[in-house]
UniProtKB/TrEMBL annotation:
CDD domains: NAT_SF, nitrilase_Rim1_like. Residues 25-224 form the N-acetyltransferase domain. It comes from the Bacteria. It comes from Qipengyuania gelatinilytica. GO terms for molecular function: acyltransferase activity. The keyword Transferase applies. This is GNAT family N-acetyltransferase. Residues 243-500 form the CN hydrolase domain. It holds the Pfam family CN_hydrolase.
Amino acid sequence: MPSSTNPKKRTTRRKGSEKYGQKRLDVRNAMIKDIPGIANLVRRVYGDMPAYTHGEIRGQINNFKEGCFVALLDDEVVGYCATMQLAEALAFQDHDWDEITGNGYGSRHDPTGDWLYGYEMCVDPKVRGVRIGRRLYEERRALAEENDLTGIVFAGRMPNYRRLRRKVEGPKDYLEKVVEGKLHDPVLRFQLANGFEPERIIEGYLPEDKASMANAVMMVWRNPYVERDQPVKKRIPRGVEAVRVATCQLQARQVADYDEFMRHVTYFVDVASDYESDFIVFPELFTLMLLSFEEKELSPVEAIERLSEYTPRLRDDISEMAMRYNINIIAGSHPTRMDDGDIHNVAYVCLRDGSVHAQEKIHPTPNERYWWNIKGGDKVEVIQTDCGPIGVQICYDSEFPELSRRLADEGARIIFVPFCTDSRQGYLRVRYCGQARAIENQCFVVLSGNVGNLPNVGNMDIQYAQSCILTPCDFPFARDGIAAESTENVETLTISDVNLADLQWARAEGTVRNLADRRFDLYRIEWDEDGKHPGKPRPRREPLGPTGPGGG
């Protein structure tokens, strides 16, 4: 039990030692830049169990950064712990690790919860004598005290159980003998020494934990500065975290050269910047205008090859534009030849700090596959921005809910959908799916599409769009779930403020809570390592209709 001269709470945290003025050991909140080090640490510590993917660690940090801590010794990650807040009823009921953590992403964090639930604690076994584990536990305790939480609960491993199981009558007897000092278990001994009390055995908690034979001990620490007879549900303040978003509904037009195309793009970036927008998103395949000044209409193969030649220049120019106009640019999408020779449809996200990110289209439409031989990407992940994590889904991808759920689990609060549709039916598929993604993931979804036509350029014969900014459907948001929308088939810039704090409130206290109410005991989405899979080639069946994009 921690001691303190403050009669109410103790919040002082140890932050390491210094030698010759240079701090060697630091314990602090985990950051996105720590993800590779954390992943390497977990692989070293749990060599016999599956390691975290980068996406899972990203989700843990984005979903509750205040509850994730790292210990760094000489700038190397040597300790990591992850926690989340949960309601008492959920934290103390029977559960397994996948279910309670939202499949490893920490996505079940509930800011109204009154208990701090620990679901990861690992320390490099090579680091001895500096009490990394004790320091991480102190961080957890300090966090619980600062937030007036009832206490800390977690399911601890019992790694000597398998080796010693013949000496006991079961996991409960094993626990009792460890508590009495008749048997030794390094993990349980450490937790008991840090003031945690065993509550009960949880069977089947982590099947991958062979040493514990999937058993775990529910360990509890109660905050000595909080006395409650009944569980208390904390409330979420209705704060303001405003982000201004601009969606560009772009008119297809003939241009004389690349420079004229870029002047056209710059115009809308300039306007969005004048309105102090944080983001601007352009439509899918907006660079097809670059084919309009070719001497003759190119075949699909020739067109893709020609467009791909612009990739380095386009990426550099838009990145420079993002910095110059101080705005984050989601640059629609652009056909790009990859290192392996395949053509992918790629959205380049150029942030105002100068960084450039790429999100490939995962699901090419039948027309894209047949006429352009475009291959699908194999990775989807959030992109960290100065306004928080965002996601990008190119057109057809928005019609596959698994992808948006992955992005939401990693912490995305805004999902941008550049699209290119040739008919009202195609547009409505994207529109209705975008609205569904906003509701089921309790996030904002921003659509941006092309309008007009471009003779002699394949895939730009006719276009239909009504770009919009969509919201969840609950009390803090627009009554029809539409923050803003453009006029159909008219070139324009549509701008709206969205309040990210409303999402936090809705996820915790909304009329419905789609993310929190998922039944992880019945279903879940499984991704392989780092969300990548080689997959199988899909047949290039001839699609119905012309060579247009096919409508999302």
